[in-house]
Amino acid sequence: MCGILGIIPSIDRGRFHSALDRLAHRGPDGEGIWEHPSQYVTLGHRRLSIIDLKPEAAQPMALGNLTITFNGEIYNYRELRTELEGFGHTFRTECDTEVLLAAYRQWHKQCLLKFKGMWAFAIWNEDDKTLFLARDRFGEKPLFYSQAHGPFTFGSEMKALMALADGWQPSHQLKKLLKRYDSYESVADTLVEGIKRFPAGHYGVFKDGQLSLKQYWDTLEHLVNAPASFQEQAVQYRTLFAKSVGLTLRADVPVGAAISGGLDSSAVLGAACALQGGDRLSKAFTATFLNSRVDESQYARLLATEKQVPLHEVALDAATALQKLPDDLYHFEEIFRTPPSPMMELYRHYRQQQVYVSVDGHGPDEMFSGYGNFMLLAMIDAGLDPGKWKDILQTYEGQQPDRGIIKARKTGNHRYLFMQAHRIKEQWLDEKLPGTKHDEQLHGEAIRKMGYYNYALYRLFHYTIFPTLLRNYDRFSMRSGVEIRMPFLDPELVAFSFSVPWESKIRNGYSKALLRAAVQPWLPKSIVERKDKIGFQAPLADWLRGPWKTFLQDTIASQSFSQFDLTDNLIAKQKLEKLWVNPIATNEDAEQAWLALSPYLWHEHFFKRAAQKP
Known about the structure:
44% of the residues lie in helices and 14% in strands. The chain is an alpha+beta fold. The chain has a six-stranded antiparallel β-sheet with strand order 2-3-1-9-8-10. It is globular, with a radius of gyration of 24 Å.
């Protein structure tokens, strides 16, 4: 896990080095620069040492005619190494980077389908003077590129690319992108004009001044025939998940787990503790918000105590978060409905505790129905079966009480319920996805393969909410040089999750039914059957009305804010002022106020700083 940077053709080494320094937080353990003797290309690397800590494993790394700079981890590198040795390959290190290079030499682009892990890498081939770039299936690791200022540049963060040239401007589509603040991660355009986002699940070849992109992964093409019975499905899921957790624990440094007390993160810890032999967890971490209604740390304590894993509690407070906010916004680079500082503070504590890897539980909400309003789509899949409707509606009410739905169910108003399901279909599924190949033919094909409900989850996972969460957590953790691994994103596990029918996800009044059944042997009953999960969030309304109020008042009263024209300043002021006078304002109200102010804060604390010549 590291930071990578490259440019074709080479430029002044001093300026390249300054740009690479902007990624030092991603790789605090060392740096390397390789420049082609004829200045065709320069590759840079900031190292976070996780597997094989010896100097011989540093990057950029060469293997014959190939030279690589690589960010990420190949979890199954040991198995691949053994397979490659059978083809005659020899190895001088114990790292996954050398295995990746050998795999590329052996299988070329097909190696991507053999990897389990997360990656963004570039390989220079001296024989044909081409650069091969690739990003992992789901977009765990970031990769940006640009040709806006002449040379072809690529890197892990926009700030590094911006240091390689002058004259950057905010995107001319900024306002349009901000309307999709929770999903613009799946499109090519970024908030900076001329910088593009390399798409997840793609590889690219740069040759003769042109980059050609090709998709190598689409989950729709990897669906499987799941067992018919729910019990067999649970056993198979448990087996796949345990294997994935075992792979993600591989490291030569201490590995921790972030637990919130909810089902997903608890499942990771439970599985890790159930594994026999192999790599082990050293510590668990949880965030606490003292005297706050959003604090759920008691569940994390319960689990850590039962599993006898040391628990480090990180008390998050508004004053500390505000103090670090400007620098955190610079490292975050993006715009979101909540500030990044609370989560960045959590992972700062990992490094303080000398734990450099975290296994986290992200993914099941988007694969197994963590969002209640989409659940009604299963009614369309269920046809006119009243028994199935009853199960769907009971589960829906448990997650997201809706008076209209409850009344309609009790009075037997099936027409109303069916209309509500189709309203959500029209709102979420009939809208064309931006920046994807999802034309009408593919849209129909996906629904035929997986049904309306699973297709809604598929879109959440691949194109809207989840890519944004992956981006956020990469920035949160790598701000402090901490690597996040996500066992739920094993490709076999993802394909299996989208292959089981909706009845395996909504069952007996519970969402995530299959996941609950699969991990039940590892967890306390109180966590497996818990329905009241809030989700990790700071008490933002309390913060914006209290300790952050003076800062916000000074911000909207400043001359620079009044002159800022990339968003509607009046709306931002109105939302904040309304929040301040409303004693019962919710976190949702606070998020809308923060989102309205965010473009200005992004411009002040990220763009202006990143656009400066190093």
